[in-house]
Design goal:
alpha/beta; 26% strand; 25 strands; 438 residues
Amino acid sequence: MSELTKTTLQTLDNPQQRRVIVLGGGFGGLETAFALRSEVGADRARITIVSDSDHFLFKPNSIYVPFGLDPAKLRVPLAPAVAKRDIELIRASAVEIDPDSRAVALDDGRSLPYDRLVVATGSGMRATEIPGLAEHAIPTWTPEDMVRLGGAFRSLAAAPNGTGAAAARRRILFLVPPNNKCAGPLYEIVLMLETWLRRQGARERVEITWATSERTYIQAFGPRLHEVVTEEFERRGITGMAGHVVERIEPGRVEFAGGPSVAYDTLVAFPPYVAAQAFPGLPTDDRGFIATESRSRRVASHPEIFAVGDAGDFPVKQAFLAFLQADAAAAHLAAELTATEPAISFDPVSMCVMEQFDKATFAQVPLRLTGDPARPVEVRPDAGSDYRVGSSRTWRLGKKMLGHAVPWRFANGLPFHSGPFWAGMDLGLRGMSRALAD
């Protein structure tokens, strides 16, 4: 008997049980699976996670790798975590979804049937969209990229003082091209680098330039974060260039459309985003992100399929927003399986903490979709006091707390953004944000 037939018969043996397949072992996939299991027992849902990795990578803390953090500390093994929650783990990649037959084809030749499907396969980078980017820039996408970046930073700090040619300042350029969906980590890295160079006694030997295609800094998060970044760049002597669209990159020089060229010795860039895995059987935009009904995260025209996190079409790709989407999908799934009303829906209120080493900046940003492709999201006009931004040394403790809490929760097979644990943390964050907002 084939594995597929065995699985189908097992599902039929218990008509109350539904097979829920979750594609992806990142923020969106794990949060959905753990939240659903917390709401629905194994008698109602047989949950399987399909992941191409044997571990969860806590990517937000990869910003510390260039400054010495061991990348191994970012990993949480998946097998023991899912075993605690009676969740099956399959180490493979999904290559095709057939919504008509309700089956997922894997790269190992298997086909998995599903009653409900959650796509959380994330996003990827496509540096080849910008001529010369792949050849000349250091990306910040993987831990390996961050290790390489650390070597570049150490070379900057070790540049000789000397005289004449040896005294020339080294030039590092941070670049955000079009179609980047969340450059927040790169803003963290440039500010962290400036602090680190000062502490190394090497700041005067390095010119730091920032260039982004967006009209304002961290455009999606509104004017307050733009003001914070502008003030930080001025205070730190970082040259900031907004509204500069890169056209091509040559050795030692970046050419911008209709504008100046900028010279560099080291180039750091966040390449354009695309969906990590394309699924032609589903409705997607031109970059492969899956079209959804926003509040439930159901895939357009396929209500039995959900897309959460970076795989979906919400324009901002961020871990906290992935949590919110995952919890909404889990709530709608649980409501179906228990014939009740969903407890929550997706409400895009972003929270982030931007590390700078000497302090950190917290932002709580209520967002809304605009329907304008040039500016797809904006701060809600009626956000009022719910739109909060503040900088403080204290927020560095908040950053560290989140960096420990998420891996710990996932290592124990528990959702991060739900239940009494999150209620307490949310209360603390909101209290701090009110006290420390500018």
